[in-house]
Structure formats: C-alpha cells, structure tokens
Amino acid sequence: MKIGAVMFFTADSMHPAALGRALEERGFESLWVPEHTHVPLTRLSEYPGGGPLPRPYYDIYDPFLALNTAAAVTKNLMIGTGICLVVQRDPIVTAKMVSSIDQLSHGRFLFGVGNGWNRDEIENHGTAFATRNKLARERIEAMQAIWTQDAPSYDGEFVKFGPMNQWPKPFQKPYPPMIVGGAFPHAARRAIRYGNGWIPRADRLEHDGVGTVIGKFRAMATEAGRDPASLPITIFRVPDDLAKLRFCQEIGIDRVVFSLPAEQDDKILPILDRWVAVKRDLGL
Predict the structure, then answer these.
(1) C-alpha span between 279 and 284 (Å, rounded)
(2) Which residues contact residue 248 at a Cβ distance below 8 angstroms, ignoring those fewer than 6 apart?
(3) Are 33 and 6 in contact (CB under 8 A)?
(4) Contact at 8 Å (CB) between 104 and 119?
(5) 96: number of CA atoms within 13 Å, CB side?
(6) Is 175 helix (H, G, I), strand (E, B) or coil?
(7) N or C: the chain end with fewer CB closer than 10 Å?
(8) Among 51, 149, 133, 158, which Cα is nearest to 99's?
(9) Residue limits of the Luciferase-like domain (predicted)?
C-alpha cells in the first residue's frame, strides 16, 4: 500500500518544492493538490464539511503549477490532482496541460478528476449544475481522444470539435491514470465507466463501513465487465490510526492519502515525521 499527502498550497503555506522534497526524502509515494478557481460570495451549496468554507479554498494555487514546481525538484515522487474540476476547464486546454506536466515529470502525473459540489463556483464557469456529470464525461472522453489519436475529433452534446492535431502526447501510455473522485455509488459508477481508479474519502466510507463499500464497488466493477484489479482504490483524508490503516492493507487498498494543513514548515514537518513512524509500523 502506497502513502501520499494532500495539501491546499497557498502563499502562506509550505512551498510546493519544499514539501515535495520532504515527502520524497521520507519515502512517501505521492503529493496531491485540490482545485478551486475561486469561491463565490453567494452560497447555493452547503460546504460538505459544515460551517463556513475554510480560507485555503479560495487562497489555493493552481494545482498544475504547484505540482510541476514539486516535480521539478524531485525524481520519484508521483504528483496528482486531488481532484481537478473538469467541469470548470476547457478540455482542449486541459489535455495540453496534462500532457505537458506528464512529459515534464517523465510520467509521474496522476490525473484525479471530479465533478464538484459548489454550484455557485461551477455555474460561474458557464456550466449548468444539473448536467455537470454528463459534461464531465464528455470532456474526459474528448481528452482521452486527444491523447490517443493523431487527428482526434469529438461530437457530443456539450463538447464538439473537428479533427485536429495536438502534441505532445502524454509520457504515460495511453495517458496518465484517470482516478475518479467522489462518493459511493454515483462517483464509483463513473470510475467504472471511464476511469482507471476511484478516490473515496475515508470519513464518508466510515458511515457504511470501509470494507462493505469497497466490496460493493468491486462487485459493481465485475458486473460492468471491468476487472476490479484495473480500478485501484485511493482513500483520501485517512487518519493516522494503525488499526484502520492495517485493515486498508488487508482489503487491498492501493493507496492512502493523509491531509496536511495549509501551514508552514515548522507545523508540517512534525506531521510528516509522525507519518514516517506510521509507515514503519505498517511495514512499508
């Protein structure tokens, strides 16, 4: 089981390059960055965590720039969007971004994708909240065509473009793993339909039981004709609870990702060192 970390990088947090080096030096597998382009002052959607939206949500750096900064000073650390809001991004531009960062990092990019919850933010980008899931699927299919075809085109309800050329293609073939984030069962179905993995959150899995939900996901994959082994599971926001983490190992979770606060080095490094001890206790 691999272990990674996720952070909302801001101008006041630990620098992406410094955190990337610190994670790699301590033997962690990956660094993940969420995405929010902005936070509208209106609030049609309640914050899933309850209460007001934390400041890092609207202070956060662009994930691709933050991740490329970390990749430039590391050699083996995987870098991932956790998650990229594809409903807020042009697919042609995003395909170019993904190919570029995957080439620049020599195949270390993990493309975590999701459809978002903040209706105000999503609709500011011209996306209808009610049809965002179909839009996301079309944009993802369009990007997959761009990455794998010499003269790709796409003709969907929301995404349309004629034959074109776009290079570079991604370093990883056919393209970086597209790991779909979100809750069970809806995001799980999307992961099975067009993804290369699934990202649930630990706190949401706990409600119905981690093992129960993971078992249902794998059964759904099999019923859909997908090999569950082709859909590795990455659990976000895991606590440093050895019993729970050992259980994740036992049921074949591919990766767990712990959350870091948007703080400076003096607050972050002790957390990393605590997780080094956890990793050692897990035999990793």
Answers:
(1) 5
(2) 1, 210, 235, 238, 256
(3) yes
(4) no
(5) 8
(6) coil
(7) C
(8) 149
(9) 18-237
